[in-house]
Structures are given as C-alpha cells and as structure tokens.
Amino acid sequence: MIQKSFQPKKLLAIRTDHLGDLLLTLPALNLFKERTPTCELHMVASESYAAVLRHLSWLKQVWIPSEVDEAFLRQGFDSYLAFWEQEPLNQNSLIQKIPFRAGYRRGWQRSYLNLALPHQHIRASYRPQVLQNLDLLAMLGFKATLEELPLITLDHSKAGTAGWRIGICIDTAGSDRRYALAHINMLTQDILKKWPQSTVVLLGTGRSTSQAEELIRAIGPLALRVENLVGKTTVEELLALCKTLRILVVGNTGPAHLAAALDIPQVTLFIAQAPSLTRWGPWSLKARILKRSPACDFVCRPPECDQGARICELDIHPAQVLDAIAAVLAQAQQVNSMREQLTQFAKQGIAIASSQTQVVETLRARGWQAHLIPKSKDAAERLRFLKARQTLVCVDSGPLLRWIERLRLSNHVGVLPLYDSFKGDWDVQHFEGCLYRYFGMEELA
To answer: Are residues 89 and 186 in the same domain?
Structure first.
C-alpha cells in the first residue's frame, strides 16, 4: 500500500527507448493506477512508440520528449520515475523541482534523483524487468506481490482471425538476436505444408526488406501464401495487424512484448547468449521460449555481434520451432501463472555445474540444466566452455571452485559458489531458494 506520509497526486513516468522496454513498465504502472485512482499518471515515451500508449485509458496523457519544456514541468507534478538509465531529457534543473524523484543510482542520474535505487549488477542483469520497475515504485511507498501484478494489456477490441495467419518477425533490435534467413526460409515452407489453410505474414523493419524479398523468391510457388509486410507498417499498424494473427514467431525484441500485450500466443527465440531470459522474457502466459546455448567461444556484446560466423543464428532448428508452434496452438503444457512462467525462464536460462552425481540428477529431475563436471584434467576447459555459452552456477566448494578462481571466471556475472548448501544433507529447495535470491528473483524462493 501507499504510505500515509506520501500520496502521489500527479506522477510523471519516463521511458523513451525501445518498444519492449516501454511495454514492460505497464504492469507496475497499471497496478499503481488501480491502487491510487485519484493520481494523475502521465508518461513520456519516444515519438515512435507513444501512439501505442495513447490507447491506455488509465494514462492521463502521453508525451514525447520534444514536448517536455519548462511550461510542461510547471504543471504540478509531485513525483517522477525514471525507468531507464540513459539521459532522456535536457531538463534536469527543472526536474529537480519535482519533490519526489526516483530512479537508478547510476552515472548522470545522481545529479538530480533524491530517491535512488542502488545499482546491483547481477540483480539488474537477471531480475525480471517488470519486477525491477515495481522496485522503483516501491521507493514511493508502493508495495505489491508478484501475484498482484497484472499482465500487459492494451485497450483494444479483439480483431477477427478468419483463416490461419501465422506471423514471423524476421527482424530484431540487435543483429545478435536474429534468426538465420535460411532457417526462416525452411520454417516458412514447413508451416505452409503442415497447415495447408495457413498464410504466413512476414514482419520487420525497413532494414530487412531485401532479406524478405530474397525469402519470397526462394520459396517458389508457396510465396502465393506469404504476405510480405516487412518495412510496410507503422507501430500502430503493426499493433492492429498482430490482432489478426493466430500465433507469432519472434525473437527477443519489441513485437514479442507487443504480442504479449495483445494476448497473442507466441514462440519466442532467445538466440544470443547475452540477453537474459529471466530479465527479458515476455510477460505472458502464452509464450513458449526456445533457447539454446550457441557453440560460440565469444561472449556476446549486444546489440551487435563482432563475429562474422554468426553461429548462434543457426542454433535452433526450424523443426524445433515448428513443434513449438504446434504445441502452443494445441495449448499443450500451458502455464497458469507468471510465477510458473518465471520459474521456467530461470530453468531455461541458468546452467548449473557440479562434480556430484546426486546433485546433478536431482536438479535435472526438477527441470534444471545441470551438468556433471568430473574432477579431472579437463574440468577447467568444460567450465570455460559452459560459461562462454550461458549463465553458469557452480555449486561445489572444492576443485571446481578453485578452477573458477584460477580461470578468473568469478569476475563474470552468474558464477556463484553455493557450497554452503552442502553443509549436512543437501537440500535442493534450499539451493533453489539461494539461487533465486542471488539472481534477484526472491519472489520465487
């Protein structure tokens, strides 16, 4: 609940970067508005995506950065929330006149925030972004549980879905997250053959126009059942289009979160190793995630890839995507809550290494990616191999931990010696609780 000492009357929230990041602020803000109906809630968003928010009845008004001037900031805002860590406005001196100013304590923001959330690198890298946004609201005295947070919901009537329209988004915000065009080609043909009544709708930005045209030429006669809308839609048109889809195949990018906001089923491909699944997974009960550990020795530096081979693009086979589409359409293995979904994200996104067979077998039985690393000469290389591919947790206090220290792997995010768990009988639930708390997901513990 809101503390009695402070009841916001007019709150200004800001997130002016990417579409997905913007949409992930909505569950916390929506719940905040439900709890404090008398508070005027204003939002500043980039000009490209502000139109999406204008459909939300609970937002008083949506602004773009060019409209934020001295006259704007004299409207009597009593609280301010900065939902990102890059400087969005050149109005710091004016923002300082707002009594309560909350954000992350990093770099430039120190100059004007009076309610700063300390930046903890591991927590910020892995804690679900929706919960991080709730953490900022907590600085204003607002408290809520995971179960109370709503799904992202845009105020739109459901469009008709006559026929079978299956969307494939061939573009992403960063080149390190894109699915290989050859695999998209195979997937498109497989979809059209498996579901003869279907139409495939290609989506993406203008920078992928040539790839879409190449794909159309490559699939021959089946191209008659492909609708190429790459580079041909605005964000608002994309929003309307998504409502007509039966399912969307998409990478870790904005349209995945847009589909979540419209309650559209999706298969989401987490290709690169760097974007954390636990942090950026879609806030949706209808998302099926496919994630693999790319056979690449280089650590990703999103949003671009420095390696020409682009091995990760080929890591998920089209047959796996086709199976996931079929499972989602059949509503197989549906999750019932975001707690269950986030637990699955954690088990897909975190690898665990141990030299103890019992530990590995127990964790595998509970759905974790557990790897047995024998105490042998190649243990160090196997640890390095795992760490190069995904978040790695080591649970031994002996040789494996010493190898981690020797390899300097402990300087990387996600290497965690949880050897305290082995005092006495090993308790897997205690271990899982430690793991969730370490990665900023204490709500799951």
So the answer is: no
Q: Is the dihedral of CA 208, 209, 210, 216 positive or negative?
A: positive
**137 and 186, same domain (yes or no):** no
Instruction: Judge contact between 189 and 225, C-beta under 8 A.
Output: no
Structure tokens at 52: 């999406």
Please name which of 237, 235, 267 lies closest in space to residue 159, comparing C-alpha atoms: 237
Judge if 228 and 312 occupy the same domain.
yes
Single-letter code of the amino acid located at 363: L
Is the whole-model pTM more than 0.85? yes
Q: How confident is the model at residue 143 (pLDDT cuts 50, 70, 90)?
A: confident
CATH of the domain at 263: 3.40.50.2000
* Tokens matching residue 352: 């665990």
Say if CB 288 and CB 207 are below 8 A apart. Answer: no
Among the three residues 101, 119, 148, which one is the final residue of a domain in this structure? 148
Distance CA 170, CA 249 (A): 9
Residues spanned by the domain of 41: 10-148
CA–CA dist 314, 181 (Å, integer):
9
For residues 325-355, one letter each, b for 16 or more C-beta atoms within 10 angstroms of the residue's C-beta and e for the rest, the string is: beebeeeeeebeebeebbbbbbbbbbbbbbb
The mean pLDDT of the chain is 81
Nearest 5°: phi and psi at 269?
Answer: -100, 115
User: Does 91 share its domain with 184?
Assistant: no
The count of structural domains within the chain is: 3
How confident is the model at residue 420, as a pLDDT? 45
The structure tokens 């190649």 sit at 378
Pseudo-torsion of CA 431, 436, 438, 439, nearest 10°? 140
Task: Dihedral sign for Cα 179, 184, 190, 191, please.
Answer: positive
Structural domain contains residue 1: no
Contacts 24+ apart (CB under 8 A), 68-76: 68/44, 70/94, 73/97, 73/98, 75/10, 76/9, 76/10
